[in-house]
Amino acid sequence: MASRKLLLLPGDGIGPEIATEAQKLITVLNEATEGGFEIESGLVGGAAYDDCGEAISDTTMELAQASDAVLFGSVGGPRWDGVPYEKRPEAGLLRLRKEMGLFANLRPAICYPALADASSLKRHIIEGLDILILRELTGGVYFGEPKEIVDLGNGQKRAVDTQVYETYEIERIARAAFELARTRRGKVTSMEKRNVMKTGVFWNEVVSRVHREEFSDLTLEHELADAGGMKLVREPKQFDVIVTDNLFGDMLSDIAAMLTGSLGMLPSASLGKPDDASGRRKALYEPVHGSAPDIAGQGIANPIAMIASLAMCLRYSFAMTREAEALEAAIADTLNDGIRTGDIMAEGCRKVGTSEMGDAVAERF
Amino acid sequence: MASRKLLLLPGDGIGPEIATEAQKLITVLNEATEGGFEIESGLVGGAAYDDCGEAISDTTMELAQASDAVLFGSVGGPRWDGVPYEKRPEAGLLRLRKEMGLFANLRPAICYPALADASSLKRHIIEGLDILILRELTGGVYFGEPKEIVDLGNGQKRAVDTQVYETYEIERIARAAFELARTRRGKVTSMEKRNVMKTGVFWNEVVSRVHREEFSDLTLEHELADAGGMKLVREPKQFDVIVTDNLFGDMLSDIAAMLTGSLGMLPSASLGKPDDASGRRKALYEPVHGSAPDIAGQGIANPIAMIASLAMCLRYSFAMTREAEALEAAIADTLNDGIRTGDIMAEGCRKVGTSEMGDAVAERF
Ligand SMILES: CC(C)[C@H](C(=O)O)[C@@H](O)C(=O)O
Ligand SMILES: CC(C)[C@H](C(=O)O)[C@@H](O)C(=O)O
């Protein structure tokens, strides 16, 4: 069995604690299956800045490029608020996304039955929810130039960000959306602000053309991003796959995650384009939640989103569908058995810390 | 009593129907008080385009500039999907906002007690909700240049939008936020994406300085817009005034409106800077909801957001606080009496149409 190279980048805040639990599961995988996973580790975010003055070093970038998949924890925290913009913790994550070409960010918003009551929404609105937000991840306002603050010399400054999309960027994310929808319920909802933004007009046009020319057997709907956000809050189950740009995707996927009441549970996958020769695609897997500096280092963080990110890694990077499903089932079983970290604690359940939660999932795997 | 000049711009979809109900209330106001309101009407949006080929004519713009306040219905609909970008219905609204200098958009998200169960959120999460989203309305990505789609000549096109903010634009909206917070619970939460956008870094910096130098007795908090959106869904009552840019404000205020379960109920005010000499500020009042083309012309639309926009007009343009409160009380009484349009219908209530709803509020005023 060929070895499988994983790069583990725990990052900041609760990142290292939850990464340890992912590592635990990888050890089990190596024992139980012929996984053959080899793990290297590196620094990213504030941790990397403290170490080498950059949010990610060139050496770590090379390791990432050479790996079969990156497992990423989380970055950022108030400690690095004063750091220059180019070196802030998030810059490490953005560099990974951009240089690895990870244009397709899959963010499933599912509601674990055992947690339906943890949502701020009424149970019947989110029970059984299973939607997928596909966010464009290497374009838009995140990377467009100019991006600057200019001194106008009259006591005034001007700050500028630029949202840019080219044809090929929208085509490839649209194709990814339709391909994913085909394995699901066959419906794609594209969201933009075509009534205000030229990138929205263009996004709408390209997605519609890709649909017409290549996927006309599937359903395509369009929503303005603000109206789409409302529908998400009102009746999220009407969606299947939502495809949207980098910034709207950031907002909408976080809101969708929060709707489920399961923020600490939700993983994500960021995928590049398959290599022409090997078919291998660069990939990074990370929880949707952030670095939660307020609870870092206390051993109480919920590691499930990180473990579920490992499950996505098995599925999308290694086609280990059976193992991915087994890991997801182990998570669901753990929850059904009433084992909870503080963030999802409920009456009658047993409250555990990060490490016990990792153990509980490992035992059920 | 000096006359008060209102320009009524019903617009498209359900706009004309709900505008008629606002007019009904103005008639009552003129009879009951010494309001002395004079109403002129004009076309905007698709209706204006059909009439003169523009989303608003220069003549109507002049009327708007000369009025004491504009009452705006709603614009847009699939009928005008093929219209050139510069002439699309929304362009009329955007021109009004920009040329009248309406930089401060007040969007209260309140939960009417009688409607708490209409929300998709659990009752205890939204009962008693009363927050105010203050959205910057004449800057950001809505108006920045370049804003274009360019043919790159190799089968590829590139679309660009530009988000721009200058010092004075952020200063004045920040001041407006603090002044509003002072009349409320004294807390402002500023939202941006400073971890990704230079305009976010700059926004954060200017709002912080205005707070430090001019309003340090009030509380200022900062949230990343994505995290802020999540907190809004999770626990909206933690906020008082939220101040944010044009695009985030569009998304967040719609989501907040939907949380309340009272979208058809929520008004907004868009205000300019007070004139140095007269103290008068240009103003436009409009419902937060859209033109709902699917139910237009059936006499079933909910006119309450439009009537509540008139109440905001009384308060902010004419300092008629007592009358504004009486009108708001009449709305609450109508709801408490179980009178409902279809969108907010509940068991045991009486279902009425647009015109009956207007009558019901007028009777209780
Ligand atoms: C950490 C930050 C740069 C990032 C983003 O805005 O993309 C985060 O919010 C996310 O959603 O992954
Ligand atoms: C109609 C449209 C231009 C508008 C906007 O995006 O500002 C609307 O969504 C709003 O929120 O007032």
From TrEMBL, chains A, B:
It is found in: Cytoplasm. NAD(+) binds at residues 77-90, 290-302. GO terms for biological process: L-leucine biosynthetic process. Binds 1 Mg(2+) or Mn(2+) ion per subunit. The record marks 142, 193 as: Important for catalysis. Substrate binds at residues 97, 107, 135, 226. Pathway: Amino-acid biosynthesis; L-leucine biosynthesis; L-leucine from 3-methyl-2-oxobutanoate: step 3/4. Mg(2+) binds at residues 226, 250, 254. Gene3D superfamilies: Isopropylmalate Dehydrogenase. Its EC number is 1.1.1.85. Belongs to the isocitrate and isopropylmalate dehydrogenases family. LeuB type 1 subfamily. Homodimer. This is 3-isopropylmalate dehydrogenase. It comes from Fulvimarina pelagi HTCC2506. The lineage of its organism: Bacteria, Pseudomonadati, Pseudomonadota, Alphaproteobacteria, Hyphomicrobiales. The gene is leuB.
